[in-house]
């Protein structure tokens, strides 16, 4: 019986040591994160500087020119290839203005031809200057935009963040 008690005591000791080790390890991790919180890294950057470092200026970006007809044809032919070709890229797109959002959040460009398709290039307006420029336009106008294609979907088409109009 003494041997059975000894094995049981060893197993209990191993479990207790394991639990204590886990608790102490967790406290050590929490202590490290609290140290990070109590001693923040000080780096002063103005908002203007932060914007400049986050996004390159238009002069530094090379835009590849496409038409909405070409983009939508590529998407209809093979959505996976269209994603590789356009998503994350800076593009200049020319197409027919098909929708102007009443709140001034976005516009949509469609194919020049009168083909019925739900696919379009949905372009998000980023500045007041862009809103003012769009206020002078009408559905059906052919316009050219520069921006970054942020998403490609086989149902609704493309998403573009507008950098400039014209």
From TrEMBL:
- Please note every region of biased composition (Polar residues): 41-50
Look up and give the organism this protein is from.
Oribacterium parvum
Q: Where is the composition biased (Basic and acidic residues)?
A: 28-40
Pfam families hit by this protein: tRNA_anti-like (PF12869)
Indicate what this protein is called per its UniProt record: tRNA_anti-like
Q: Where is this region: Disordered?
A: 28-56
Question: Domain of life, per the record?
Answer: Bacteria
Q: What is the lineage of its organism?
A: Bacteria, Bacillati, Bacillota, Clostridia, Lachnospirales
Record's InterPro entries? Protein_unknown_function_OB (IPR024422)
